[in-house]
Specification:
By secondary structure, the chain is α+β, with helices and mostly antiparallel strands. It has three domains: about 10-200, 3-Layer(aba) Sandwich (Restriction Endonuclease), CATH 3.40.91; about 210-360, no CATH class; about 365-415, no CATH class. It has helices at about 10-25, 40-60, 60-65, 105-120, 130-135, 135-145, 165-175, 190-200, 235-245, 260-270, 275-280, 315-325, 350-355, 370-380, 385-390; strands spanning about 80-85, 90-95, 150-155, 185-190, 210-215, 220, 225-230, 285, 290-295, 305-310, 310-315, 340-345, 365, 400-405, 410-415. The strands form four sheets. Strands 6-7-12-8-11 form a five-stranded mixed beta sheet. It has a four-stranded mixed beta sheet with strand order 1-2-3-4, with helices on both faces. A hairpin with a 5-residue loop joins strand 1 and strand 2 (about 90-95). Helix 1 packs across helix 8, helix 4 (about 105-120) packs parallel to helix 7 and helix 10 (about 260-270) crosses helix 12. The protein is elongated, with a radius of gyration of 30 Å. The two termini are about 55 Å apart.
């Protein structure tokens, strides 16, 4: 019976994909035969793993990490050399790749790494390959410092612990060189470390934005620090121009583009910006921390700048994105347009942002193509008996229907043709 277990675990595949994206085309492979100069070859993946290790340890850029890779003929067991710009520290890295996530590190590999370090300590640089020669001046400077620190780094795509024999080789090397104020030690980077770094690299970066509130804003500090006031749409548009949809990282919905509702928002901003506040539901922002900057008098209600760290717009994504669209009209000025902005600072942002109670329940107009996802969720939430009820109210002729939330009324109702409806622009 064939083994159904995949040859490459998911975590290993994630790391591999990240290595290819970041380092393929950056790392020199010219010393390899043409058949081995591809992203799937273990030679590239080993070099890329050593480059990622360098970036993790030194906080350098991807390009700088790629230059630090010296793997190849005459590398003397060192795959990459990392250095610090602020302290006399050097990292000598040997990497081991495994498609199965089972890489190990034996005494032979440890002895090769120690041998390479000895040659560097003796400043026998000429024996190293040409890739190292570009790094030689910096390495020489660091090793000449009486307070230098050397880190022997084992980087493996696996979770195996170092055998005691391997530990002994590395510890003995450290004892031999730990004299006259120098410090030599070793450390290990495993598959979990690399996977954690990949996850961190793709995580949204914290966003900081500023909102200027004129006189008349409100503040409360219990149970959470919160602010409520009017903000110019010029400033709101600048948020989206600077950060785009990253502003909505913790929102259930990103910008939908120029939908019918969003076009009404743009039209109002273009035609009667002074009336915009009357039709708009406002914007809700959560953040980790707020710092206030007063213009004159330091008192609640006086004009202030609210600086928000690690901010995310959880309600009002369409308003913010549509405001940016409105600015594309060169004749549009938004200095007279305002929206109500609510800012709440949470220390435990991840936990709080998942609470949908923060998102005001609204009644909004939807079209046929928007029904599928909400309907699926409603069926799951209401149980089996809801399915026939949902089907009986699904629109089928392209007309507008209204979804009722938190209501005992039918799920979807069609607006009465005899009653005129005033379009209300949703901030969601």
């Amino acid at each position: 019976m064939p083994d159904s277990k995949p040859s490459m675990p998911a975590q290993v595949r994630h790391v591999k994909d990240a290595l290819v994206t970041e380092f393929y085309g950056r790392i020199d492979l010219s010393d390899l035969s043409p058949t081995r100069q591809n992203a799937d070859d273990s030679a590239f993946l080993t070099r890329a793993l050593s480059a990622l290790s360098t970036r993790m340890l030194t906080n350098c850029t991807s390009d700088e990490a790629a230059i630090c890779v010296i793997d190849g003929r005459d590398d003397y067991g060192i795959d990459a050399v990392g250095t610090s710009d602020t302290a006399p520290v050097i990292w000598l890295i040997q990497a081991k790749w495994s498609n199965k996530g089972e890489a190990g590190f034996d005494t032979a590999a440890a002895n090769k790494l120690v041998r390479g370090f000895k040659k560097l300590d003796e400043q026998d640089f000429d024996r190293f390959n040409s890739k190292f020669q570009t790094l030689a001046p910096k390495v020489k400077s660091i090793l000449s410092d009486p307070n230098c620190m050397v880190k022997l780094v084992v980087a493996i795509m696996g979770e195996n612990e170092l055998h005691t024999d391997v530990e002994e080789v590395l510890i003995d090397a450290a004892n031999d060189f730990n004299v006259f104020g120098r410090s030599v030690s070793h450390q290990i980077l495993k598959g979990t470390d690399f996977h954690a770094q990949v996850r961190a690299d793709i995580a949204p970066q914290p966003i900081s934005i500023t909102a200027t509130m004129d006189s008349g804003w409100h503040y409360r500090d219990t149970p959470y620090e919160a602010y409520y006031g009017l903000v110019s749409m010029d400033e709101v548009a600048n948020w989206h121009q600077t950060f785009g949809d990253k502003l909505f990282a913790k929102n259930v919905r990103k910008s939908l583009g120029l939908t019918t509702v969003n076009k009404r928002i743009v039209d109002t901003l273009n035609e009667s910006p002074e009336n915009f506040w009357y039709f708009n539901n406002g914007i809700t922002i959560i953040c980790q921390e707020v710092n206030k900057e007063f213009f004159k008098k330091r008192a609640a209600g006086e004009p202030v700048k609210i600086h928000m760290r690690d901010a995310s717009i959880v309600n009002g994504a369409q308003t913010v994105a549509s405001t940016d669209l409105a600015t594309k009209n060169t004749e549009t000025t938004l200095t007279d347009a305002y929206a109500t902005v609510r800012v709440t600072a949470f220390r435990r942002l991840k936990k709080i942002s998942r609470r949908r109670s923060l998102k005001p329940q609204t009644r909004r107009t939807i079209w046929n193509k928007e029904i599928l996802s909400p309907l699926t969720r409603l069926r799951k939430g209401l149980g089996r008996n809801s399915s026939s009820r949902c089907r009986s109210h699904i629109p089928s002729n392209g007309a507008k229907w209204t979804l009722h939330q938190n209501s005992d009324a039918p799920l979807f109702t069609r607006p009465s043709p005899s009653r005129a409806r005033i379009p209300i622009q949703s901030g969601q």
